[in-house]
Design goal:
288 residues; single chain; seven-stranded mixed β-sheet; 42% helix
Length: 288
């Protein structure tokens, strides 16, 4: 391999990254003028996993109002109150409007831990109290349409990205809430879209921006069936968010300056090489 080829490879890779970031930023936003809630399990989930989506969805021209609901304050090490404040600071860096748009629970029902299993029914109760949607007890297709105070709910998928049981519980709780909301409402459209963050293989998880062109290619190849096709509810099945260099650095700042209590040595590896610091692909779940 000659010197010109050696120099050309990193330039090509960087160009592909910036090109996919440009396409992601300049294409029609998947959500506009929506009330969006990001449902997470722990303070720092928003920065380590969802920062590309948050930075895109909070851009003023989209007209979106984004909130974060965090079901635990991450008190496993006795730092719960510190981590609550860190989440608020991180949210501000990632574009949320105000402190009031961040809600952190401190409940014995939702303790942080790899060995802790969260009750799906308790998650449903929290979502119902926060956003409405009392389930019907019987079939009533001619009754009132189901309603909620948000339009879009974003959370982890059934694999939880990292396999954390608290992340996985959020997916099942969110689905159960929306399934209950639609019970007895056949013929109506669900008022809340559920979008989940796609889990990837361990290899793709740690190739940072190199995964951006790959994710876009996969979306294109399935595209007219997945990311580019609109479903029966009139929305895209997948949404892709790719951060550019400035946004990537902003996401890193959310970790290094806001979540200082969590910056152990291995987190430096994550914020440097983790693809979720650069790429988010959200898949819309079918709720009937």
């Amino acid at each position: 391999m000659d010197i010109y080829t050696t120099l050309a490879i990193p330039i090509l890779i960087a160009t592909l990254w910036l090109f996919t970031a440009h396409l992601s930023r300049t294409s029609a936003p998947p959500f506009t003028n929506k009330r969006i809630c990001l449902l997470i399990a722990h303070p720092d989930d928003e920065a380590m996993f969802f920062s590309p989506a948050l930075l895109a969805l909070t851009r003023p021209h989209t007209g979106n109002h984004v909130k974060i609901l965090c079901l635990s304050n991450g008190d496993a090490d006795g730092l719960g109150k510190v981590r609550e404040k860190e989440l608020v600071a991180s949210a501000a860096i990632l574009g949320l409007r105000s402190r009031g748009d961040v809600l952190v629970l401190d409940s014995p029902e939702f303790r942080d831990g790899m060995d802790t299993r969260w009750d799906e029914g308790k998650i449903v109760e929290v979502l119902r109290e926060a956003f409405g949607g009392q389930a019907s007890k019987q079939r009533d297709p001619d009754g009132d349409a189901p309603t909620a105070t948000i339009d879009v709910l974003v959370t982890f998928d059934r694999y939880g990205v990292s396999g954390h049981p608290n992340h996985i519980a959020l997916y099942h709780g969110a689905r159960a809430w929306l399934d209950g909301l639609m019970k007895g409402k056949e013929g109506w459209r669900c008022p809340v879209e559920l979008h989940t963050l796609t889990s990837t293989s361990i290899l793709r998880k740690y190739i940072s921006f190199l995964d951006a062109p790959m994710t876009m290619l996969f979306g294109f190849l399935g595209g007219l069936k997945a990311s580019q096709r609109r479903d029966g509810a009139g929305g895209r099945r997948q949404a892709l968010f790719v951060s550019d260099v400035g946004q990537w650095r902003q996401a890193q700042k959310a970790m290094t300056t806001a979540h200082q209590s969590q910056m152990r040595w291995f987190r430096w590896g994550w914020i440097t090489f983790g693809r979720y610091m650069v790429v988010n692909d959200l898949k819309r779940q079918s709720i009937v």
